[in-house]
Design a protein that fits this description.
This protein has 234 residues and is an alpha/beta fold. It has six helices and ten strands, in the order E-E-E-H-E-E-H-E-H-H-H-E-H-E-E-E. It has a single domain, classed as 3-Layer(aba) Sandwich (Rossmann fold). Strand 4 and strand 5 form a beta hairpin. It is globular.
């Protein structure tokens, strides 16, 4: 399989007054093209810090990060901005939609930034919202707003989709719909997908589960019988 990311002994430290918090403690990791990976762990285990470093939103204190054999840790802030714009789609727990724009307009904001983008209507159709494009966020449910956020993230055809607790603000039934949309994007577009969660049930839909604890990788499980999101039992 083609390697998309590699981290070598990545650490991240934050200083809070006189206290140094070690969020990551020497993480070695490889991610491959087209796979669906879950980062599983309790709050404070380092999952979001690692995701932000992979996405070029943050820099490690030490260690190296490679994207397709190019070292991100040597890139300038401008190069990291271009990397995020052209290659990475982000989905967060909160939707961050522009309230004064329709679903179609929220998605089209991204398509104007990159060449060869998906048509906004096609992106909305991929997440099952083709009939809701003219609705404003206030007219959509929480799950629908999150699916608009997914459509916005994938409209630029990113090579990587990074999802930080995408179902954290949703009820169970709605969360399953959102996970199904993310899984469909992974399957149909071949986007390397990384989903952060503390919910062990969600891990059953992944190709690999990377368990994190106290800023380190505690184990990696290969899933031989991954479930369809709609078959999850919470």
């Amino acid at each position: 399989m083609e390697r998309v990311f590699e981290t070598r002994q990545v650490t991240k430290e934050y200083r809070m007054g006189e206290v140094v918090v070690r969020a990551l403690k020497g993480v070695d990791l490889e991610l491959f093209a087209g796979e669906f990976v879950v980062l599983l762990g309790a709050s404070g285990s380092g999952k979001s810090t690692l995701l932000n470093i992979l996405g070029g939103l943050d820099r490690p204190t030490s260690g190296q990060v490679f994207y397709r054999d190019q070292e991100l840790t040597r890139w300038s802030q401008y190069q990291l901005t271009q990397f995020r714009r052209e290659h990475v789609g982000f989905i967060f727990q909160f939707y961050n939609l522009v309230p004064s724009l329709t679903a179609w307009e929220n998605v089209s904001l991204v398509t104007e930034l990159v060449p060869q983008a998906l048509d906004p209507a096609a992106a909305l159709k991929l997440v099952g919202l083709e009939s809701r494009g003219d609705h404003f966020p206030s007219q959509l449910s929480g799950g629908e707003q999150q699916r608009v956020a997914i459509a916005r993230a994938i409209a630029k055809r990113p090579a990587i989709l990074l999802c930080d607790e995408p179902t954290g603000a949703l009820d169970v039934a709605t969360g399953i719909l959102v996970l199904a949309a993310i899984e469909q994007v992974n399957r149909e577009l071949g986007t390397t997908t990384v989903v952060i969660t503390h919910n062990a049930v969600i891990a059953s839909m992944a190709d690999r589960v990377i368990k994190m604890s106290d800023g380190q990788i505690a184990g990696i499980d290969v899933n031989r019988s991954k479930l369809n999101p709609r078959d999850l039992q919470w």
